[in-house]
Design goal:
This protein has 22 helices and 28 strands. The two termini are about 20 Å apart. With about 650 residues, it is an alpha/beta fold. It folds into four domains: about 10-75, GMP Synthetase, Chain A, domain 3 (2-Layer Sandwich), CATH 3.30.300.230; about 80-140, GMP Synthetase, Chain A, domain 3 (2-Layer Sandwich), CATH 3.30.300; about 150-385 and about 580-640, Metallo-beta-lactamase, Chain A; about 390-580, 3-Layer(aba) Sandwich (Rossmann fold), CATH 3.40.50. The structure holds zinc ion. Zinc ion binds near residues 245, 247, 250, 332 and 355. Zinc ion binds near residues 245, 247, 250 and 355.
Length: about 650
């Protein structure tokens, strides 16, 4: 029987820990139990000294055993909850509430937005005195229902959550049965198309799904859902789902897996979780309004949240016995990630970009392009064919000019925006243009999911770009300045529909597929003083794309639900330079800058023309690499032991 050196077992772990406490750092370990907690190993101790020095102990142990470790206190040494609460309220300013998790010995302290920065050493001292883990969370400057909702789901049933994490851990740390000798991907969606991203990565030991998206442009399930149906027993055998970012075409079908009894982990970055939940719930809601059924229910969304594990950028995490992942900034939307997937012990490394932007935007820093190792690069190709003729700077000028003209003739400006990403970017651009006096001061109204999505942005300042982070320190909420008014009621919306004079309306959805933007469009389409301005990619088949192609008679539903034919007389235009996707030039620069040089390049997430054109350029830039342009259902062997 072949035994690998890398075999992992709890017995070996116990030996390593014992050796650590006798040789490296001699003290009584006081260990009472060792448990799996999702992709981490939790060590419970009844020695308060070990608990108080947890940072050092955990760091040493991680170096020794190369697994993520968390040190927890045994119940026996914890100070009673009431006393901890009194101490916290006395010594931390602005406490709004404390959530105690008695199973873990953890207290989450919510402090108000304007409370003074809590002192790190003070918190450490409190932890040492009480033997409780204390985590301080600051309330964002804008209230967000979604983050509160997610917290309720995660903290509402700690017993269930802990059991779910233990089950996940059991699978992550199971003994590897087969040696890693193959790495194969199968394209279940996003093969020569934009939409329903889903790529299955298989080794002899593991099955991991990279994204699980929905396609907005199809009409039948076979066109809209990823082709999960083609892999037999997939939902039962899947080890993990990795979500790169919170756009429906990358995560819209995650709860669907839970509908069919998937109970494994979903990995994503911290901001991705609330942004994802917000849009999945909206997806259900919109389907209901249109008299259709969403492919899953709120219960399935809740189940998905209970099984979601968030990861910070740069943290290496074991997700199966032979796969480790690390997230890096993708520059596309808040929390968007490029995933580095390490297979086997140095067997193969895959970089999956998800959607990415290789340029600084007003909201985010440019995507990461250097990785420790990379044999295969799976890259999006949305703008692979047509170069964007304008730079960011020029696009801002064009936007200012269009708005200036429309406002000058007394018109209304409708900017359809996807809730997450472009909306916040355009808000920062408009802010800048107003402040510089480049466009006349005009009221801007935000309608739909944009408001909640912006609130979530204010909760994760550490994920925003360097420049905007600096301004947040100065100004607080940089998104919602005096120029912007959120529309929070139907009567407020009616006022805007009837108001005289110019206004700018930013509303969802970004491709005119539903959402409050259609109400404004119905009212304002017939007046040639008005302007409809697209700032994001319009997928083939959507109303947005049709209008850009010249369609001028459209069918919209009125309040009573009756279809009306509307003649579009307003000016229709698009300004491309704000896209969260890399332009053709940026995709090419990325291939040139990418380190180390990959052996395989797999192009996905682009229409056939875009992928074809990019593949031709890529072969010249990376003459040693094999370039793949797979269709859906195609499999590619990335590596195999010979
Ligand atoms: Zn995206």
């Amino acid at each position: 029987m072949v035994m690998s050196q890398q075999l992992f077992s709890l017995d070996r772990l116990r030996q390593e820990i014992a050796r650590y406490f006798s040789v490296v750092n001699p003290m009584d370990s006081g260990i009472t139990k060792i448990e799996f907690e999702g992709p981490k190993i939790a060590i419970y101790t009844r020695n308060p000294e070990v608990f108080a020095n947890q940072d050092q102990v955990a760091k040493d142990l991680v170096n020794l055993i190369k697994k993520r470790i968390v040190i927890r206190s045994d119940e026996e040494i914890r100070v009673p909850k009431e006393d901890v609460e009194a101490k916290i309220r006395e010594r931390i300013k602005g406490v709004l509430g404390i959530i105690f998790n008695e199973l873990l010995g953890e207290a989450v302290v919510e402090v108000s937005y304007d409370a003074p920065e809590p002192d790190d050493t003070e918190i450490k001292l409190l932890m040492a005195e009480t033997s409780w883990v204390i985590r301080v969370e600051r309330q964002p400057p804008m209230k967000t229902r979604t983050i509160e909702h997610v917290k309720k789901i995660i903290h509402g049933d700690p017993q269930y959550r802990l059991q779910a994490l233990r089950n996940i851990g059991e699978k992550v740390f199971r003994n590897q049965v087969f040696e890693t000798s193959d790495a194969v991907i199968t394209i279940l969606g996003s093969g020569r198309q934009v939409g329903r991203s889903a790529i299955l990565l298989q080794t002899n030991e593991s099955k991991v799904l990279l994204d699980c998206g929905y396609s907005p442009s199809g009409t039948r399930n076979l066109e809209m859902f990823p082709r999960l149906d083609v892999v037999e027993n997939l939902v039962n055998e899947l080890d993990a789902v990795v979500v790169t970012h919170a756009h429906l075409d990358h995560m819209g079908m995650v709860p669907y897996l839970f509908k069919y009894d998937y109970r494994g982990p979903v990995y994503c970055s911290e901001p991705t979780l609330p942004l994802m939940v917000m849009q999945q719930l909206d997806f259900i809601n919109v389907a209901g309004k249109e008299g259709e059924f969403a492919p899953y229910t709120e219960g399935d969304v809740r189940m998905a949240v209970q099984h979601t594990v968030t990861l910070k950028y740069g943290v290496v995490t074991n997700i199966t016995p032979d796969i480790r992942i690390t997230f890096y900034n993708a520059g596309h939307i808040l929390g968007s990630s490029i995933v580095h997937i390490h297979i086997g012990e140095g067997f193969h490394n895959v970089i999956y970009t998800g959607d990415f932007k290789f340029e600084n935007s007003r909201t985010l820093d440019a995507s990461v392009y250097k990785f420790p190792r990379a044999e295969t690069l799976i890259m999006e190709s949305t703008y692979g064919a047509t170069p964007v003729p304008f730079t960011r700077q020029e696009s801002e000028e064009m936007l200012a000019e269009y708005i200036g003209k429309a406002v000058g003739r007394g018109g209304k400006v409708i900017i359809p925006v996807p809730a997450v990403g472009r909306a916040q970017e355009i808000m920062l651009v408009l802010n800048h243009l107003f402040n510089e006096g480049r466009i006349p001061e005009t009221p801007v109204f935000l309608d739909g999911l944009v408001i909640e999505a912006t609130a979530i942005h204010t909760a994760f300042p550490e994920y925003l770009g360097r420049e905007v982070r600096g301004r947040i320190k100065e100004l607080g909420n940089v998104f919602l300045s005096e120029y912007f008014t959120p529309v929070r009621s139907p009567s407020q919306r009616d006022e805007i529909l009837n108001m005289q004079g110019p206004a700018i309306i930013m509303a969802t959805s970004g491709m005119l597929e539903g959402g409050p933007v259609l109400t404004y469009l119905r009212e304002f389409a017939g007046d040639d003083r008005n302007l409809l301005m697209f700032v994001s990619y319009q997928v083939e088949g959507t109303l947005g794309r049709k209008l850009l192609k010249g369609l001028r008679e459209i069918q919209l539903f009125n309040e009573a639900g009756k279809a009306e034919i509307i003649e579009v007389k307003m000016e229709v235009t698009k300004v491309d330079g704000f896209s969260g996707h890399s332009s053709r030039q940026q995709l090419i620069s990325y291939l040139k800058a990418f380190k180390p040089k990959p052996r395989n390049l797999v192009l996905v997430h682009g229409e056939p023309e875009a992928i074809g054109s990019l593949a031709r350029s890529a072969s010249k830039i990376l003459p040693q690499a094999r370039v793949y342009t797979p269709q859906n259902l195609e499999s590619i062997t990335l590596a195999t032991h010979t």
